[in-house]
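Workshop exercise sheet. Pairs work together: one partner reads the sequence aloud, the other fills in the structure field after running the prediction. Swap roles for the next sheet.
Pair: D.N. / O.F.
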Amino acid sequence: MSLRFIIGRAGTGKTEQCLTEITKLHQYNPNKTIIYLVPEQSTFYTEKNLLEFSGLRGTMRVQVLSFQRLAWQILQETGGAINPILNEVGKSLILRRLLDKDRSAYKAFAQVMDTPGFLQELIKGLAELKVYNVTPEQLQGCLGEVETLGLGAFPLKLADLAHIYKEFVEYIENKYLDTEDFLEKLTQKLSAANFLENAEVWMDGFNGFTPQEYEVIRELLLKAERVNITLCLDSEHLLVNLEETALFYPSWETYQKLSRISWGIGCPQDEVLVLQYGEKHRFSKQNDLAFLEESFFRDDPIYEGELEGFRLLAAANRRVELEGVARETLNLCREKNYRFQEIALLFRDFSLYESLLPTVFGDYGIPYFLDEKRPLLHHPLVDLLQAALDVLEQGWNYEPVFRYLKTDLIPISRCEVDLLENYCLAHGIKGKRWIDTKPWEYIRRYTLQEENKEGHTKLEEAELKRINTARAKAVMALHKMEEKIKKAKNVRVMTTSLYELLEDLGVANKLELWSHKAQAEGCLEEAKLHSQVWHKNLELLDQLVEVLGDQLLSIKEFNRVFKSGLETIELGLIPLGLDQVLVGTLGRSRNPNMKAVFILGANEGLFPARIQEDVLFTDDERRALGKIKIELGPTSEKRIFAEQFLVYLALTRASDFLQVSYSVADEEGRALSPSYLFNSLEKMFLQREGSKGVKYLQAEPEQDNSSEFLVHAVPTLGYLAASLRNSLEGKVINPLWWDVYDWYINRPDWNKRIGLVIAGLFEKNNENNLTDKMVRNLYGNKLLTSVSKLERFKACPFSYFLNYGLSLKEREEYKLKALDLGQFFHAALENSHCRLQEEGLQLADIGDEKLTDLVEGVVEKLVPQLQNELLLSTSRYRYLTRKLKRTVLRAVRVLREHELRGTFRPVGLEISFGLQGQLPGLQINLRDGTVIILQGRIDRVDSALGEEGYYIRIIDFKSGQPTLSLMEIFYGLKLQLLAYLDVVMRYSFRLIEAEARPGGVLYFKIRDPIIAGEGPLEQDEIEERILRELKMNGYLLKDSQAVMLMDQEINGHSQLVPAAMKKDGEFYKNSTQLLSEEEFKHLQEYVEKVLQEIGEEIISGNVRISPYRYKGKSPCRFCAYRSVCRFDPGVSGQEYRNLPERELSEVWYEIGRKREDKANGQLD
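Structure field:
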């Protein structure tokens, strides 16, 4: 037995030395067993390198193993692997069950044991305890000492950990073999492994070892003929003591520990083989890379030579950074004959680039292998299983049911799923209605009072048949599983039921089809994923039966345990192609044979990484345990020092070319900073005289760098579009882009795509006017409409066209909407008025008690009628019903206050006008003979008799904070109240049998405001403040008698209406909400003129995407059609129709001018 160290700095040829020695030994000593021991994640590349190495094409005597594989091989030979293997999935199942079984036993874990990720942290913590040979008894034994250290809740956490650790160990004892116990078993059995008797072992690629691994090495030294261990270490450090902050401290510490082990067992050490830089070392061709390896962690080194293989780059954002790497990758392959497999991309945090990589490298046609283990949580099969159990646990709720149906693993089409979803949303389907035997029906309500009495149309009958057929297919297999699980006596039966669900659905066949399709399309990784995910889920089901088979769990417990298992499943793929770019992370990827390396994301806190404390053990807790002789993994401080060694390894992977880059901004445009490492590299290489500095990469080509973007036809098309757009905007572009344009135009296979690009450049995102024929087909010769619809046109013509021309509707949902609330309030107030009329009463006649009874009776009758008993469907809606009742009561009380203080009384509520209305509609003739017939419903009309006759006021009920301004009327945004006034004034004889003067047009607020105060308030003060909050808003007749008829108690500012009056009956000069009778008349005429203009625009076919913007507000905010119009004011050619503020005198002038035009029969 002997030990030999092979040491050298990065790039000195340690791996090549191992391969050379292994090759020679294999050739000249045919009886020798050769073990090549490497990290688990390196086994594939090591085997590949070994086979490609000169003189060694294949052998059975050379074994490339990891510690885990060595353990498995020896346990198989010596009989130590009798019990079933417990993997991460099995551990998660057991731990979840143990935690749930006795939740009250845990104090510190009680609040976090259900938190996502907790189980993984617990598994990692228990693994660390095992790796460092800490037993449950040791943890329990140190609790007393820990309590004296003053570390807060740590004693409780440690007690919980000791308890679950002990429970776990006892549960698996003599039943399962934990993967974390492999090395302990290996240590026990290694001496009995006969194939190691004459073996020589090489250990390569390790930076350090765990306590368990040190024990295995100790046994290997005793058993094997010789053990060779490579370490990345400078020979000058062998005989000195290094500080923890030193670059090579991790390797030096490993060297010292191994030396002590060999001395302790009497194992002789051969002379250390020290490798130095020579003619064939990694950086022999590139002086700058050699200088980087030698000098980076020294004080203030400056490179004076020319940069040949090193580059620093700053990119506008991460996508631009990755696109730059893709272009350079193709350049290296074309200009320097690199193969893709000789190029690597390294990240410290790959998640920031994960979503970008497939798109960018796909566009550039670059094959790559992602050297990362991937979770399975988002695969359709996993979604299916999770959703199926959620359906059972949650009682067929909407969300899990449609997660289940949308996996594409159910034997119904996506169209059928959409049909079911639309029906369920519209009718509030959930719970057992999915599985009852009663067919689903259509239930429609046109208003609160009127239910559809008609039967179904033939079209509806056919659709209902499709819906019920799809429903039966959708739930059949799942309902069958539910029935079996209800009767299940143990986990074995429940798991079997879950597997039978997959069989009933034909999932295995569907995944196989997906895999074949992906393979046919060249997506080898996706094909492998579909194949592996099936087997991984079967392993999970097997582990469930293995570890919990005879136990009885509720569906909730079973679901929790199953999901805990799913969270731990990861897929690790080997490269599926021979020539692929390696994409990996610093901590995992180990292949050193790379000509070119790109390090991306060299931003502050990312590269080097900002090391965080572990979740389970803080640094203070680790140090405290260390003082009482319980050694665990390194603290975050030590890991910071180890991080610089990882950085060193990353910077020294490339033999010919290294690029380090960072992003200037993230995906949301927030500024990002380069890391101190990047700044150090800049100082080292770009401070010399004549240096051009860090190269900055823009998102689009500029005039002086256009040729750099001409790498691949697919992305170049996008850059061409950007350049042509710049040219259209008057910017000077490189003439090269016109040659590129010609290249695409002259190739038939690109004609269609270049055509789309050109069309996109001239796309203004606006619609041409409809033809006369289209207009007639849509609207006919009589345009039956309402004022609110025409206001919609004024807000945006395209929105009007989609809503009232094409009749596009939002998907119906069984929930309370603003429109439903409006209908409810209107109906409640109308019904209250009708009830009083039946009894011959007015609001002013009744007290609080009767008023409350009145409102409660009305509301109780309306509640079941709203959306098919929606307000009775859930506790939330029942609470909302109480709020609605309070709001209606508040509105009625305020209306009563109006009657008590004034003489205006309701003529009617919900007065309809137009076809079959109580009053005729407004008829407006257009130029071409088309007639607009306006119809609608007026919320409330009041009248009062004054000395000079009757006054009429129009009231519109609103549940928000409505306002009415002259500017809004002028711009046609709010025409309703004035149009309603016009109707009522014209046909006042039908309502009050007399002519009338305009008293006002007002919004009445339906709200139940909360009054805040610094201290307790008297009830009278509260009521006064509520009245002020609910004061009506709008315009009144500038007539003191009319205002007094509305509020006889007015004293200064009215609490009821927007008026302020002096004691002498004069109005205050700043009263802007008052209009003379002539001004009312002018506004009525102006509104009619605006309505006529809108009608002319409609019949002219105007469907422009032209939303207004007034005082920072626009109709786009609540528009349901944003996804249709794609209006974006940030894009050139797409602007709001800005409505500026104007002086009142100017507005009145324009109103007068337009009235004159109307009188003269002119239109603008």
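Discussion prompt: The first strand starts at residue 3 and ends at 8. What would you look at next?
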